[in-house]
Amino acid sequence: MSRGGRRPGWLGVLNGDPLPWLLDENTPAIRHLALRFLLDEPEDAPAVRRARSKAMRTPPISTILEHQHPEGYWEKPGPGYGRKYRGTVWSLTFLDQMGADGSDRRLERACAYVLAHTQTSSGGFGISGALSERPPPPSAVYHCLNGNLLRAMVDFGHLDDQRVRRAIDWQARSITGEGFDGYYRSGTTGPGFGCAVNEAHPCAWGAIKALRGLAAIPPRRRAAHVRRAIAAGAEFLLSRDPALADYPTGTSVSSSWFKLGFPSGYVADVLQNLETLAELGRARDHRLRPALGWLLSQQDDHGRWANRYPYAGKLWADIDRQGAPSKWVTLRALSFIRRAA
Predict the structure, then answer these.
(1) How far apart are alpha carbons 149 and 18 in whole angstroms?
(2) 154: closest CA among 215, 112, 113?
């Protein structure tokens, strides 16, 4: 129920009421996020604080943290991209998506380790699974990883760290091209999300991750060039119907767009596209109406969504059974629907 005991009106577009399911105290990580982002409870509310504290001691968050090395990394020393999806950068990204407490000393060590070993000389975070203390080269910076780690760093309270500010600057200038001369044929190939992995076409998955990173910055703290990058990125995502996801690519549209899942690595789905645009104030843009209709069509008879991309067997702790109703995916869907309704 909402604050004051009233049923939120946006639940009327659903086939059922999944809120009691999401607020179950036996899944405290989901309860914590549902209280915050579906019922608008403040972070310091007693119920929110209790849920978050319990979530840190409960799988899946506790399982990931149990596998962290004392120095702050997961799997092996170095930049942390390997192995998928248990290495340092993945573990940190997923902990962020699960709402872990950034003030926890283990999360502080993880952030410090990433800033010391994954950031390149250009300021962006680079992809490397090497067992090496050397940071990756600037040619290894891609929007997907930089956006994911930027989001985690800001969410975990490191916005004022100068190294995070450099990563923000890389992210914004790489999108607009303003004062940026670090494009590489083998990596980020040009402005507007050009990416070698996408055959130099603008990568919509990368755009979503990049914009999620920039969206975490409070609006009043966004520099002018960051605002311009956000505007350009949002228009790129809105230039195609998210329900079709026919963004530029050298091959056919990836079926992964239509497999709603959790957690989210470098792949993005239709829902993450919608979530990101909603965070940037575009939830009610008329161009999103077909995608909202598609999203609503994916719910079951109880107003729940299935996890069709759960990375089963690849994580430190399995999140959901393939294709089963998922609290995580349902939470994601409702976070957008409440803004768009």
Answers:
(1) 31
(2) 215
Spatial separation of the C-alpha atoms in residues 275 and 158, rounded to whole Å: 23
**pTM score, two decimals?**
0.96
The arithmetic mean of pLDDT across residues 37-51, rounded, is 97
Residue 221 · residue 159 · CB < 8 Å? yes
pLDDT in tens, 86-96: 999 999 999 99
pLDDT-derived band of residue 5, with 50, 70 and 90 as boundaries? low
- Tens digits of per-residue pLDDT, 132-163? 888 999 999 999 999 999 999 999 999 999 99
Question: Which domains occur in the chain, in start order?
Answer: 58-340 (1.50.10)
Give the tokens for residue 225. 């060039």
The pLDDT score that the predictor gives to residue 4 is: 45
